[in-house]
Fold these 4 entries.
Entry 1:
Amino acid sequence: MADGVQNAAVICCFMTPDYQISENCEKELQCAADSKIRIIPCMLGDQNNTEWKPSGWLKLVTAGLNYVKIRDHSDLNIRLKAKELIGRIKNQYLPPAEERAPAPPKFFESIREKYLRENRIKRIVNEEKSFPIEQSYINLAMIETKEQQEKEKKLKEQDKHGRPDRENDQDNRRPYQHNEILGTYEEIYGTKTSINVEEIFQKCKGANKKVLVLGRAGIGKSTFCQYVTYRWAKHDLWSEYELLVLIHLRKLTVSRYPQGKEYSPSDIMKKEYFPYDD
């Protein structure tokens, strides 16, 4: 048992009343603590006592550690917490010193912690109530630029050759305008390909990958951005990127960024995230 624990990079303990009274589990986890092995406690709890908490030796060993809370045994919560646990394990593991990349700047972690705190969405009707952002449903569809441009060109040609006589009265033109608007929307946006959040950069061919997210007001563009920054902060999305920065365009006003000066991305990031660090 000791060899197995001491050769491990991370120890995950799934805490229940049975786990707590097991002598072998106690020896195993105590060995990990004594050997300075990283411990990730997962709170399964007691189905017959929802208020159950670890006590005695288990409380002492796991004190101050951030639990993965799995008390809710619903399929959705189990999937979410499994992803969280995998991300935590990846984050906890450290390769040998000679293989490690340089540590990221301290402010990277400050930004990550900010995203982790912003883990709930306020309700529109009653902002005093909120729900976990993990329960947010993000429905994305991708339209490739080339395909969209070809359809827009086709619509312009149809528009050029199919307009009614300008001498006709306004009433005769209204049905045409209505059908034109509907046709444009359906022709350009009717054919879409559903895509998962994790895959939105995969079709970008260049070194600099750009994706434009479109949607009417209130449909969830800002929520989507909050959702991806939160998942990145938890290490279960786009972990290949050291830093993910969310800048709200509505804050880039002349009053906050006067004209006559060029602002670099680092200037904007400093003002938005560290306004008092001068």
Entry 2:
Amino acid sequence: MNSFRAPFYLDNKRWFVTCAYNPRFRAIWLHTTPIYGIEYNSPIRCEVSWIDNICRITQRPIHEEVNIIADETPFGILNLCVYHIENRGAQHLADALQHNMTITSLDLHDNKVQDEGVEHLAAALRHNKTLTTLNLLRNKIGDRGAQYLADALRYNTKLICLNLLGNEVGNQGAQYLANALQYNETLTTLHLWNNKIEDQGVRSFATALQHNKILEILDLSGNPIGDEAADHIANILLDNTTLKQLWLWNNNISSELREYFKNQDNRVQC
């Protein structure tokens, strides 16, 4: 207590309050500076100070005074996978992403984020100008979450790779994303392996590929897709020279059609 009292009360003679959300421990900290004797000295966290009420992502040691000019930690790649941040954590993180100017890649796989949490992340994507890769692998994102992301893709001009592998996106969600591809001019990679997309959803992507000249990798593996839809989207590739890889592994495609793709177009991997 003395190590805290001396610099805080006797020297600085001021009250500086900071509120931080620690995603790893799913805890909200309300503290003053300086802080000593805490085990978690430099955790990654979303932090708000009373100076400007702007949420920032930082890893600054918590006993150091907040500097709103030079405080933002230049992460580049931020890996928060398997933190179980869920919807509340996604909301706090999204608040910080709206103002962050350093993170280019965000990994949130296996975090139990649902549509509600994705709504906040999608809102952040409308304002964020640096994030190029967003990994939402194995969360609990359905059609409504796909709609939020699709709406964001209409306005976002930086995101290059979106990974939705292992979620719950169905035909309606596929249609939302496919429609967004007709307007988006930056996304080059879209992973939708192991969702709930059927032939109807694949036809939506086929329509989008007639207009989109940006997407290079489309991953629809692990979905209940049959011959008709697979053949339809493959035929679209005759006029689309931008798409370099169409992944259709682990679907309901017949061996005959697989062999045909193998011999006719090596861009189709199944």
Entry 3:
Amino acid sequence: MAPRSIMSWDDLELVVDSPRVAQLLGYTVDRVQRLAKEGKIPAFKVGGSWRFEKSALQEWIKSKRNTYQERIQKNGNIR
């Protein structure tokens, strides 16, 4: 069963699964799980399945956005 659409952060549960995060980020479920396994996205396992805290995801996205903006300001491009 496909996860229901996420309209805003308010629609998101406090802890979500990989398919929900994939939908939110526009990634595949495999990519989300690989990032979690590599420690590149904040996650934890419950019964063998990856779970993601809403607040940790928001902070992770914010840090990525800030890093991206800093690189643009420093280099004048998005490399």
Entry 4:
Amino acid sequence: MKLLFTYNHQKVRKYLLSLKIQKNAHLLHELLADKKHEEEIYILDCLEHSREIDFSKISERSIQQVMATVSYLEEDSNFPIGLIDSKTLLEIIMIAEKSLDTDLSCFYTSQLYLMKIFMRMYRLGIPVKDYYPTYLEQDNFEEYDCEDSFKSWGDDLLQDMKLHHEEVDSEDKATLIKYSNLFHISMDELNRIVENAWSPIGEMFSNIKIEDQSFFHSIQNHFDIRMLYQAEEEKLYLFYDDDTYFPAIKRIEMLLRIFEEIQLTKNISI
């Protein structure tokens, strides 16, 4: 027992969890008979055996529950307690390990994070079958440089949602002047940013019709990025200044959020 207190927090957590599983082992039959956590079991089974997922059978909540469970067991995990209640956590782990014979430590939080993105795409009517078996890969994308891949993925989403997209051309003086006026920045300062930039300093998205202007303020604050929506043009301008770090995966999240709002606006107007 003394050795327990020399272990890191994660090992203590796993030790206490194993005690709980042993104590509650008699509940497994009841859980299976009641068909509890069917969606979570379905997700884990598909991941374990690399089966194509039918997204109509699951929800974002079930993905979140599996993600929280995997996060709990990950090494060096900063597990947020509020993600899942302890009873649900214990039940999912018991079913996975004792019934499915699934080692949850083989999965990654980032893997389930991507699955949530695919779930949102499915709800928007974007064909996720084209991405099979990508969403089943047991890999931690945080360990790799995926910027180019995620950038390409975001561009594909723009095509799927039929939104016109342009990157700011640093040689196009008219566009630079427009950015200078829109974002209230001098041309000298803008030219300095262009000279020091290793990628385009902005993007323009067309065919965006969203009436609620507060929406753009909320996503600007959420993603900590400078943007301006011109309602008369139905155009959104993004500006990547010196202080902006906007990973391509966050760009995907932002695009999905915009697509969801556009769809909501269309549904309200029907």
